[in-house]
Write a structure and sequence with these properties.
Distance between the termini of chain A: 77 Å
Number of strands of chain B: 13
Largest sheet of chain A: 4 strands, antiparallel
Number of helices of chain B: 3
Helix content of chain A: 10-25%
Strand order of the largest sheet of chain B: 2-6-4-5
Largest interface: A-B, 58 and 49 residues
Mean pLDDT of chain B: 89
Strand content of chain B: 25-35%
Oligomer: heterodimer
Shape of chain A: globular
Number of helices of chain A: 3
Radius of gyration of chain B: 17 Å
Structural class of chain B: alpha+beta
Shape of chain B: globular
Number of strands of chain A: 7
Order of helices and strands of chain A: HEEEHEEEEH
Mean pLDDT of chain A: 81
């Protein structure tokens, strides 16, 4: 009788241990950094016109306009790392200090379950402005994470 | 209560944005995501796809979603649920009179064959969402939240914390390919991981409230 109890106890312990080990690994969510400062000369809201083409509005009054950067990154990697820094692909073709319309396009087709993220910023011949957003609840300073991208 | 503080802060922030005007035009993040749709199958709920669209997108009507995802005319279905009233709006792809999509609301998709398509749009910095309390009859209070593509939440518990949901509120996800549901009670252990491009179902008791979500 006693050995049967020990056997049952052992079986129960194995079952509990098995259940614990079979749990899927939890994502290690990065701790958000302090919110960034308000951006200087942020571009207007980015919006798509078609599945491949998007545009954005002009920067606030007093900011130079007409030269822009447009950036693309790996959305799945950004989702996993919760950051744009580790997932940046680079400037969209022809969009590094591009003069002309505040618009860009990307016809690349990502695999199913994958995607791309996009950002745009105001730029001048002398330097670039911010990748950050003004309002909302930004968790990271994009200008730090994307320093040196689209120089 | 966290939820109240969050909603008051969100309302204040929205008011500041609206009053300032210029700061509302800030650089936001755009997305193109290739979303796969699992086909209807047995047992229920295999093939019930809870699809998150970007908050600002190029889809005006349900038929636009049919076209974007290549849903089958005559059998593909797009639905949206108003959790405040429990009214479900439905459109069968290819039929006349598709309904206009409501932003910040999940789209519920059924299709007989597997398919996929590019979803394009962006997430405005001041995007806000409203949660309705659980009531009868179902689906009143069945809040299908389209998790933003640039959400900083990793798990269901992260969402509980960011939204300010009280202990005991539930967050659920549905694996459309297997029909397996995962449920998490806010404040409890073992929260499941969120999946890019999916909605989660939130049910809680308490007053309705509005909130914003942190983003990367």
């Amino acid at each position: 009788m006693k050995s049967l109890s020990w056997y049952l106890l052992f079986a129960l312990a194995c079952a509990v241990l098995g259940a614990l080990l079979s749990q899927p690994a939890m994502a290690q969510c990065p701790v958000p950094a302090p919110a960034p400062p308000p951006p200087v000369c942020p571009e207007g809201g980015l919006a798509f016109a078609t599945p491949v083409a998007f545009g954005w509005g002009p920067p606030p009054l007093g900011c130079p306009a007409g030269i822009n950067d447009a950036l693309v990154g790996n959305l799945g990697l950004a989702w996993t790392t919760k950051s744009v820094g580790a997932s940046v692909i680079g400037c969209l073709a022809g969009e590094d200090d591009a003069a002309g319309p505040a618009a860009a396009a990307d016809a690349a087709v990502p695999p199913v379950g994958s995607g791309f993220w996009y950002l745009a910023r105001d730029a001048t011949a002398a330097g670039d402005f911010s990748w950050n957003e003004g309002p909302g609840l930004p968790a990271y300073d994009r200008d730090i994470l994307l320093a040196g991208v689209c120089p | 209560m966290n939820a109240k503080r969050t909603s008051v802060a969100a309302l204040l922030l929205i008011a500041v944005v609206l009053l300032s005007g210029r700061t509302a035009l800030a650089t936001n993040m755009g997305f193109r995501f290739n979303k796969g749709i699992a086909p209807l199958g047995v047992p229920f709920p295999v093939g019930q796809n809870w699809v998150a669209l970007p908050f600002t997108n190029i889809y005006t009507t349900a038929q636009d979603v049919c076209a974007a995802l290549g849903l089958t005319p005559g059998s593909g279905v797009v639905r949206q649920v108003d959790p405040a009233t429990g009214v479900t709006t439905s459109h069968t792809c290819g039929n006349a009179g598709p309904f206009n999509l409501v932003p910040a609301r999940c789209v519920f998709i059924l299709n007989t064959v597997p398919t996929a398509g590019i979803l394009a749009g962006s997430q405005p910095p001041g995007a806000s969402y409203t949660i309705a309390p659980q009531m009868v009859p179902f689906p009143r209070g069945f809040n299908l939240l389209p998790v933003p593509y640039n959400s900083t939440a990793c798990t269901a518990q992260d969402l509980c914390d960011q939204i300010g949901l009280p202990a005991g509120a539930t967050v659920r996800r549905l694996n459309s390919a297997t029909g397996v549901q995962q449920s998490h009670s806010c404040g409890g252990a073992g929260a499941f991981n969120l999946v890019l491009g999916e909605c989660v179902a939130i049910q809680y008791t308490g007053p309705p409230f509005t909130f914003m979500l942190p983003h990367f």
